[in-house]
Amino acid sequence: MSTLETPSSNLLTAPSSEMDSIQREAFKRRLMWHGIFNCTLGFIIGLFIPLYANPRAGLAAHLIGITQGAFLAVIGLAYPQLKLQFWLGRVTYWLLVIGAYIGLLGQFLGAVFRLARMFIITGQGLPEGIPWMETSIEIANKTISTTLLLCCFVILYGLRGTKTDASSLENS
User: Up-side HSE of residue 113: CA atoms within 13 Å toward CB?
Assistant: First the structure.
């Protein structure tokens, strides 16, 4: 029997496309880091609320930073439990991180430049801002909202129970 044929050798088996525990832990750690960093940005934004052209949007940016940061950290804690293909886990990770930062940036720009079109509640009574900025923030926010919702569905799918999970519960 050659060394390539030994049962302990992984050379003859096809590599698994599912995330392994090391990859899951790496995603977990990075998502938690970005979550805490997003919270930190939200706290810093909150220090300057009275100085913004639209203080209500500044308050919203402060809260979005904190809530999206907490959301990223919670998703990070759940990542080791996900049963996903590696590529899907990676795409979901990047969409979550980029979405959190773009969402925070969009709300922050709305506060600084007094944008009103996309910010129905926080921009109430304000005139519309620079048209190209209003449009670009609107497109970004709608795209990110859709993307984050899709990520939630992927994560729910990754947390699903499998037949092996159900059979192990029946046997215990």
Answer: 17
